[in-house]
Structure formats: structure tokens, C-alpha cells
Design brief:
Blueprint (H helix, E strand, L loop, with lengths): L9 H17 L5 H13 L3 H6 L10 H11 L2 E2 L8 E6 L2 E4 L4 E2 L2 E7 L2 E5 L4 E2 L3 E9 L2 E6 L4 E9 L2 E4 L11 E9 L2 E6 L3 H15 L4
Parallel strand pairs: 1-7, 2-5, 3-6, 4-7, 5-8, 6-9, 8-12, 9-13, 10-12, 11-13
Protein name: LiaF-related protein
Pfam families: LiaF-like_C
Organism: Thalassotalea nanhaiensis
Length: 215
């Protein structure tokens, strides 16, 4: 006997619906405009019946290959390779950046005086579940970008500065946790997700469509 729709967790219903939307869009069952409109509706409403109604006319159901592609896209990148390479970014009256696909060590150091630093974990490969960022920012501007499936904890002394942690910090227990420690003095630090949830779903749908050769 199936559980009544209204008794199911709403986020599970929402994710299953979005999966079916993406799968049918990638097979050109619906247009890009229809996909985006329905995706918006699925993300905005908390009515399970309205969410499910968005895919009632779609014939294709997701398969194991789709689930595998989705897992590889949305699961944090982990590597069994261990590197002792130290990641240290120093900016004195200048700018520094670390982005792309890079190997994340246990500790990262940011030293910024009257400069700017950007540290991007979006495509980074994690070696450890717990990562520490040691930060010293004096009259500087630092930005840290993270994926949605990474937790962030800030333990900072803020002296006439600005610290904004816009991360969700609600990833599951197996997700990496980044702890930021140090000082921000008359400077600014912003921690945020580089891409919104909608942008990630749209990007995944387009990449799957291209993979299937239907673009």
C-alpha cells in the first residue's frame, strides 16, 4: 500500500518531480521554456499535489543511468589520493585566486592586507571531510565560493569589518565541512554558493541533453 502523497516528505516529492522534468527535457519531450517554467513551479510551491501535477503528462521515467549521472554531478568530489601540498594565498596590495579543479588539503591559509582573495571550492576535489581555513584579513576583501553540498562554519574575530556567511550549512553528514578561523580587521569576507539551486539543475539538464546528443 502506497503512502498518501500528502504524508510524504515534501522535499522528496519535489526532487522526484525535478528528476522527471530533467529526464524528459533531456529527451526533448518538453521545450526549454516549458522545462524552466515547470522547474520554477516545482521549486516554489509546497503543495505536493501541485508538484506532482507538473509531470503527469510526461511519459518518461528516470532510469539508473540518469541516477548515476546525477550522483556524479551533485556529490562532492572526493579523492583517495593524499597530497601534502600546502595551499597558501597571500595578497598584499594585490589580488590572488585559487579556482578550478584543485586538490584541497586539510588546511588552507589566506593572508590578505589591502588586497583581494578569491577561493573557489565549486569544482575542487576534497581529500578530507574536515577542512580548516586560517584567515587573516586586514583592510582586504575576501570571497569564498562553495558548492551547496558543503557545510561551512565560521569562527572569526571581526574588528570593524564585515563577515557574511551565505552558505546553507545543511549538507548531509558525509559532506565536507569547512571551518574558517582567524581575524577580519576593517575588511570584508563573503562566503556564498557560486550557483543557485536552479542554476545547478538547469546546468545539469543541459549537460545531460548534450550528452544524449539531442541538443
Amino acid at each position: 500500500m502506497e503512502v498518501k502523497l500528502e504524508d510524504r516528505p515534501i522535499e522528496q516529492v519535489r526532487e522526484e518531480t525535478i528528476d522527471q522534468l530533467i529526464y524528459n527535457y533531456s529527451h526533448m519531450i518538453i521545450s526549454a521554456e516549458a522545462f524552466e517554467y515547470r522547474l520554477d513551479e516545482a521549486m516554489q510551491t509546497n503543495d505536493a499535489h501541485k508538484i506532482v501535477a507538473l509531470v503527469e503528462d510526461l511519459p518518461l521515467k528516470v532510469d539508473t543511468k540518469y541516477q548515476s549521472e546525477k550522483e556524479s554531478q551533485f556529490t562532492p568530489n572526493y579523492s583517495h589520493q593524499v597530497s601534502d601540498e600546502e595551499v597558501s594565498l597571500s595578497s598584499i596590495l594585490g589580488s590572488n585566486e585559487r579556482s578550478g579543479k584543485w586538490l584541497v588539503p586539510k588546511e588552507v591559509t589566506i593572508y590578505d592586507i589591502l588586497g583581494s582573495t578569491k577561493l573557489d571550492f565549486t569544482d575542487a576535489v576534497f581529500q578530507h571531510q574536515h577542512v580548516t581555513i586560517n584567515l587573516f584579513c586586514l583592510m582586504g576583501s575576501d570571497k569564498i565560493y562553495i558548492p551547496e553540498n558543503v557545510n561551512v562554519v565560521t569562527q572569526l574575530l571581526d574588528v570593524m569589518g564585515s563577515v557574511e556567511n551565505k552558505s546553507a550549512s545543511m549538507a548531509n553528514r558525509q559532506a565536507p565541512t569547512i571551518t574558517i578561523k582567524g581575524k577580519v580587521i576593517m575588511g570584508g569576507l563573503v562566503v556564498k554558493v557560486k550557483r543557485t539551486t536552479k542554476e545547478k539543475w538547469m546546468g545539469f539538464a543541459d549537460s545531460l541533453k548534450s550528452f544524449l546528443g539531442t541538443s
